[in-house]
Amino acid sequence: MRSKRRPVEIIRAAALPALALLVIGNFAGYAIAGPNGLLALGDYKTQLAQRQAQLKVIEAQRAALARKVALLDAKHVDPDMADELVRRDMGLARPDEVIIQTTP
Q: Which Pfam families match (predicted)?
């Protein structure tokens, strides 16, 4: 003889495993397709390569500025750099002089 269960008992018995499957499925979905999931990994690698290229450009600019600052150090100013800055910024070039700028 089989024992007959009522539909309410069957639903009650299946509710907890079904809820657990829904929670696990939700986490698995976010792990794969979420904003930080496996599908976003390629985009992150592309962004990383772009940021590293930008970093190299900015580091080169920083090094150029550091060299310029070192030339203008108060303890030992490079006379050519000081002369160039004064003539360019103050407009103190003579009419017969030709000024050639090497840096922007």
A: DivIC (PF04977)
Ranges 12-16, 28-32, 50-54, most confident: 50-54
Angle among Cα 49, 53, 58 to the nearest 5 degrees reads: 145
Model confidence at 2: pLDDT above 70: no
Distance of CA 14 to the CA centre of its chain: 47
Element (H, E) at 12: helix 7-33
More confident residue, 23 or 3: 23
CA distances from 19 to 13, 30, 32, 58, 74 (A): 11, 17, 20, 52, 73
- Distance, in Å, from the CA atom of 18 to the CA atom of 9, rounded to the nearest integer, reads 14
